[in-house]
Amino acid sequence: MKRLSRRAMMKDGLLAVGSGLLAPGIFEALASAPAHAASLGAARTMVTGGRILVVVQIAGGNDGLHAIVPYTDPTYAQVRPTLALDKSKVMPLNAKMGLNNDLGALKPLWDAGQMAVVQGVGYPNPNLSHFQSMYIWQTLDLTGAQGTAQTGWLGKYLQSIGTTVQQPFTGVSGGALLPEAFEAPGISVPSISSAQAFSVKPDPRNRAGAAQRRRALLDFTSSFTGDTDAQNAFAKLLANTSQAAATGSDEFAKAAMAYKPAASAKYPQNSAFADSMQIVAAAITQNLGVRVAYVTLGGFDTHADEAATLGMLYPELAQTIAAFWRDMQAHGMAENIMMMTWSEFGRRVAENGSGGTDHGTAAPQFVFGPGVAGGLHGNDPDLTNLDSSGNLIFQYDFRAYYATIIQKWLGADAATVLGSSFPILDFVK
Amino acid sequence: MYDSDATQPVLPDLAPGNGGFTQPQQTITPPPRPHGRSGGGKKFSRRGLLIGAGAVGVSAAAITTGILAAQGKVQLPGIISGPTPVPAAHAQIAHLLRRAGFGARWSEIQHYSALGWTGAIDQLLNPNSVSDDLDQRLNALGLDLTRVVDEQRWWVLRMIYSQRPLQEKMTLFWHGLLTSSYKKVGGKSGYGYMITQNNFLRAHAFDTYDNILLGITQDPAMMWWLDLRLNRAQSPNENYARELMELFTLGVNSGYTQSDVHNAALALTGFRLERDGTVQYLPERHDNSTKTLLGHTGNLDYHDVIRIVTSHPAAGPFICRRIFRFFVHENPSQADLQPMVDAYYSSGHNIGAVLRAMFLSPAFVSAAAYRSRLKSPAEFTIGAIRQLEVEVNGQGVANIMGLMGQTIFNPPNVAGWPGDQQSANWLNTGTWLTRVNFINTLLNGTRAVQGQGGAAAGTNLTQGLQAIISRQNLNSPAAVVDYFTSLLIDAQITSDRRQMLIDTLNAGGSGDTVSLAGGSSVSANSLRTMLYLLMTGPEYQLN
Predict the structure, then answer these.
(1) In the structure, how many helices (H) and strands (E) does chain B have?
(2) Among A61, A89, A217, B496, which residue has the least CB neighbours within 10 Å?
(3) Domain count, chain B
(4) Widest CA span of chain B, in angstroms?
(5) Ordered strands of the A90-92 beta sheet
(6) Measuring CA to CA, which residue among A334, A318, A316 is closest to residue A371?
(7) Which residues is B350 bridged to in the sheet?
(8) What share of chain A is helix, strand, coil (3-state, %, to 5)?
(9) Same domain, B277 and B420
């Protein structure tokens, strides 16, 4: 999308300029919408048929060695006396590595060549704090603790494709909170925990008046004119946001009504993760213009009783992902979609004294879809060549992992989105 | 509680359940009594404005329009007529209390108006001169301050019911700057450290920056958050040293180097955080080498580090700009900051002096400051609960604030909330919907904002609104609208938008009614809808 010059924006009256007001970035980004689309009530630009990325965050630090298991490696059995899985507990992927049976729902995707495993993803000088490592993965600020980056990589991607408030669903997050990865000036990604929460709620004592009250709300919010440049900039921001929220919640409500998961999909019941995935599925299948969707499953910080914990979480993860792909297949959308996982770190190679593992470094990540080059990518983990903390040495920088998806799947310039160039890997066709 | 000195006048309209204020020592100037219709749109010179601001009550006529006309180019909507015409002093004090607090109740506007402009500012800056029954209220709830939800509830209730609004607001400011998150403070056993830190920031809210930083350096939550507990002479951890300069005092690109960061880390060695949360300074653990920090050389220790950074020429402008952007508007000029910077260096880095200079500066009452920031989630939720005089037990409020993007005790990262500096960051479609739905919830009552009495808050709120209408003797729909616009948005609303609100209230409807003075009534549904529009509208969303 063409970016308007500052001069052109002033001419169109989109940019508040004048004494005292430096147009902050967020207004600039809003104002960068073409004039015809920026007027309230104008039909928003539909982005259909484009490629879609679904991001699955596995929060807490997933133990890669418990997912893609080096079941024939003697060191593995030795350092994990209670946790190690033998041949009977895995589905062999090759002579050395096997898929944990608890993730068995993914095997059909593997067999169809639609699952790539990118091994040893990490970054230099790993930060073993959950919080700081998550921050690094989301913002690419490798100092981790500096906290000055205010943009996430997905937000930057959405900026790079010229997302405006008239496209409320280019990014969508299933769940109540917005991931830091979406943060960017002018990017307003809806976080939807349910269609009901993402709506203008009626007065419970006067439901009959709901439509009229909502119209009044939008009128009253949009008809304010300020006395200063700053007030007018906020007036525009509030008017645009309310309009986008109203349009977005209407569209989403319709989408949620129209969407029916395919009978073959069989999403797990009683799973907030599966519910979030269906919010994403609704937005995608009803053509809301989604380019990036995001869902999170947490609970992977397995310092103790890891086998039991992952014995619950892995089936939920795998069955939900498998259901989503069956659903997309049935809706004829699968060809447009790629799904990738990330987790802030893997875990310590040796188990601890509590039947668990402590914070680690590199781990395999999973990529799904017809667009992937299925199979294992990269070397199998070397359990004898560890860092001073007993952690795996990373093999692929997570930014190369991102760059590959941005460049080869989404067709955007990875260097622009990520701020510099990284190697392009071979897991995307 | 009130002094029992019966010679002091009792403040009008101070609700009995409100606690009350210790009467100030100086003679109280009575609040201005408006007489009939005030003039609209009349513009005053800057000088006239400032005189008015400094001498509220001297002459009602001299302060009729006030701050909104400050720059002479602002079209004023005019001061509305009705039973509660709003003099400029009211708007000024309400503006002050939105910034120096979380929005004022009617009684508080009257109380602070009576003190005069400088008197009001001085009382806000001297919280210990105001007695507060807050601790009794909080103690009665039996909260467990090692649990995060109870900690959040504790602070939410402080913000709602404190009689010391600026102290509470400043605590929130410090929490966004010298921040920490429970997510990294030593796990469950460390959650209580967040309260220790919060109490420190409150007690020292207006202290010198040196004392504040000396305290926060040895604060257990901060020692976890920025890893100072791991900073050892043999293996220095640079996290705190870097943020002390980058985020707390000097700013990025202010001239310090990686060598300064390293040497500051060495100079900050010597602390040990004990398991019980106490902090020891052990000289034998301090790195005794000669270090150079920002041009100062010697066997520097933490006292030296703090003194060097707070005395640095970049420190005054840095901290004053942070404070200005939080309290006044987001684009200060150097001239706007100068009175604060001067106060910083001439007072020995006293933050109270900086705040006083800011509140008394022309910039604070300029048109550029008025409604120049989007309310933060705290300002929006706490203010709405305060101003509608809703009795809440505090459950669920922090959660709602979190859905609006501000989870207290859990900032997004070490830089705090970006909205503190640029308030547009608070707004997106999801947070806007949450704000709108919160007002709907508040006006109806749900478990989240349930009243203390245990009855459904919706019932209580309708009763509460009825009580306000009766107390204020509001006798027509226009009078109701004028009261609430005066309370919530200084009656600074165009006549057509005011009419929209009156029409909404007049729309009638089935169901419950609320009685007006003089015998007529309005529909409770319409009253809720009118307040819903007013409190979701831009005038109220802006601070």
Answers:
(1) 24, 6
(2) B496
(3) 4
(4) 83
(5) A68-69, A98-100, A90-92
(6) A334
(7) B208
(8) 40, 15, 50
(9) no
Q: Does B464 touch chain A (CB under 8 A)?
A: no
pLDDT band at B12 (very low <50, low <70, confident <90, very high): very low
Comparing CB atoms, the residue among A145, A200, A225 nearest residue B239 is: A145
CB A209 within 8 A of CB B529: yes
Question: What local confidence, expressed as pLDDT, does residue B446 receive?
Answer: 53
- Phi, psi dihedrals of residue A340, rounded to the nearest 5°: -130, 150
Distance of CA B248 to CAs A146, A149, B213, B242, B315, Å? 12, 16, 9, 9, 9
Cβ–Cβ of A227/B242 closer than 8 Å? Answer: no
Domains of chain A: 52-199+250-418 (3.40.720)
- What are the tens digits of pLDDT across the range B193-251? 999 999 999 999 999 999 999 999 999 999 998 889 989 898 888 889 999 999 999 99
Residues B305, B401 within the same domain? no
Separation between Cα atoms, residue B354 and residue A67, nearest integer Å: 57
pLDDT digits (tens, 9 = 90+) for B429-465: 888 999 999 999 999 865 444 444 443 444 567 888 9
Q: What are phi and psi of A212, to 5 degrees?
A: -65, -40
CA-atom Rg of chain B in angstroms: 24
- Which residues, including other chains, have CB under 8 Å from residue B49's CB and lie 6 or more apart? B66, B67, B69, B70, B365
Q: How many CA atoms lie within 13 A of B222 on its CB side?
A: 26
Three-class SS state of A32: coil
Q: What does chain B come to in residues?
A: 543
ipTM value for the complex:
0.83
pLDDT tens-digit map of A222-255: 999 998 999 999 999 899 889 888 988 989 999 9
For the record, the structure tokens of B273 come out as 């955080």
Residue A330 belongs to what H/E stretch?
Answer: helix A306-330
Residue in B76, B428, B542 closest to A231 by CB? B542
Residue B66 to residues B9, B53, B363, Cα–Cα distance (Å): 27, 8, 13
A148 touches chain B (CB under 8 A): yes
CA dihedral sign, ordered A383, A385, A389, A391: negative
Cβ-defined contact of A220 to B500 (cutoff 8 Å): yes
Contact B536 A217 (CB under 8 A): yes
Give the separation between CA A29 and CA A183, rounded to whole angstroms.
Answer: 13
- Burial status of residue B83 (CB atoms within 10 A of its CB: 0-12, 13-18, 19 or more): middle
Q: In this predicted structure, what is the pLDDT of residue A144?
A: 62
Q: What DSSP character marks residue A372?
A: B
How big is chain A, counted in residues? 429
Q: Is residue B307 domain-shared with residue B381, that is, in the same domain? A: no
The Cα–Cα gap between B490 and B362 comes to 20
**Nearest alpha-carbon partner for B423 in B368, B377, B361, B358:** B377
Which of A 164-223 lie inside 8 A of B, CB atoms? 168, 176-178, 180, 188-192, 197-206, 209, 213, 216-217, 219-221, 223
Residues B347 and B424 in one domain: no
- Partner A, chain B 322-341, Cβ-Cβ below 8 Å: 329-331, 333
Which residue in B316, B322, B312, B286 sits closest to B301, CA to CA? B286
Interface of B with A in 213-272 (CB under 8 A): 226-227, 239, 242-243, 246-247, 252
Cβ contact B397:B155 at 8 Å: no
B257 shares its domain with B301: yes
- How high is the mean pLDDT of chain B? 83
* Domain end among B80, B99, B125: B125
Domain that holds residue B407: 377-541
Residue A18 sits at the chain B interface (C-beta within 8 Å): no
Residue A20: pLDDT band by 50, 70, 90 thresholds?
very low
- Paired sense of beta strands A337-342 and A363-368, if any: antiparallel
Owner of token pair 């169109």: A12
